[in-house]
Amino acid sequence: MKLFNISILGLLLLAACSNNQSAEKTLPIYGEREPVTKTVNGKTVTDTVYQTIPDFKFVNQYDSEITAKSLDNNIYVADFFFTSCPSICPVMHRNMLNVYQEFKNTPDVKILSHTIDPSHDSVAVLKKYADNLGISGNSWWFLQAPKETTYKLAESYLVTVAEDKNAAGGLVHAGYFILVDKQKRIRGTYDGTKPEDTQKLIADIKTLQAEYKNNKTT
Amino acid sequence: MKLRIIAVLLGCIGVMAYSCQSDEKIEYMRYYSAGQELYKTHCQNCHGGDGEGLAALIPPLTDAAYLKEHRSQLACYVKNGLKLPILVNGKAYNGQMPPATLAPVEIAQVLTYVQNSFGNKAGIHNIEQVNAELSKCE
Fold first, then answer.
1. What global pTM score does this model have?
2. What is the DSSP letter of B21?
3. Which residue on chain A is closest to B43 by alpha carbon?
4. Residue-range definition of the domain harbouring residue B77
């Protein structure tokens, strides 16, 4: 009888553990980090400073200026593409459409698609592309800036973008979706050409939302 | 024991049925399965696993009437790409399709696959037909 009681207790404890885990599941923080020691009220405190996405300035498909400030208090997903891309872009945006459908009515979740071919992808071309994809409102922005600006920013998303005459469409790029949190830290990278990775992205956005809901100070 | 005999008998019937398939049917199956692999590599990124296309950007491959009407031009579209605005399922698509680097026999295979998938049922599109059509590309 005693043994039975103990095993019940054990089971209960196990259950409690697994419940806690799912409630407090958090996503990893990617990129470089460094400890910063400072003195606060006479005490020495060590804090971790994480890599963040630097400030930027783009124009979206509505010809409005978009800066890092436009994304304050937003979780967002970033990718790099070009409208005349014959290889992986269509499948990336077929997958991204699922993310859009899931969060288009959630004001603090956004999608940023940066064109890496600004000489062809003018604001008008991007608007037409968005229209043809069935995108309206302000939850998915198609962003344009001088090539160097976009290529430089791609580096801070840990993504490679480059010109290559041998690649299809004359540009190479990795089809990654990058998840960025409200502090502009990278919280996940996903292969945008794979539907199952896109499902994981949608689940991770929900995890991140829960993180903010449970812990307002994060 | 009895079950085993029945199983062996059924197996024999299966083999007989298979070998009874007409040569045309086997030829069609060959084209179709080779075309399926080619489709995955060369077409699926844009046209989708179910030939569904992508919103108003990329036309679907589900318009049997369009495929029938343009059957003799399909080989040229695949080989040289397609630039003109086209009307599919009553919707206009203005983008352009890049040319595919496929041999004539591969074009025949992928056309057979597309024209017999996604609700289409147009039978084999063989290499002789494709060669004749390619000689008349505009």
1. 0.80
2. S
3. A87
4. 23-134
